[in-house]
Amino acid sequence: MTLYEPRWLTESEQDAWYAWRRMFPLVNAEIARDLGRDSTLSEADYDVLSVLGSTEGHRMRISALAVLMQWSRSRLSHQLTRMEQRGIVRREEVACDGRGAEVVLTEAGIATIMTAAPLHVESVRRHLIDALTPAQLRTLAEIGETLRERLGVTRKT
Prior knowledge:
By secondary structure, this protein is mainly α. 63% of the residues lie in helices and 8% in strands.
């Protein structure tokens, strides 16, 4: 016996839920497949490189990067270790306070993201952007913002 009566999904709500469940992994898999083929980067590699590539000095405190990416410190640490071994990032102590560490793109990392980004954005266009009308894109962006706010996730600045 349940303590409350479940709010079952209506037919239209169920259609939306199933569409989300089918759409997200399919689109993501296509884009990830292209990324690996075009640049040999994983999604995680690209996520880290693209965030660092958009910051001043191509660096960020590791703790701030973990929060921004919604990753555990452990997951990020393991990812950074793999990327350090390939020479595309390095960790440095924070010069001004000595308490924290930053992750910094190396020259090879900058070159890697500059080569990968145009191919990646073309894949995003092919598998998502160009498949939708401008009105659908606006709706998708609004949905994303609504869910981000509801879940209490801060925007990337």
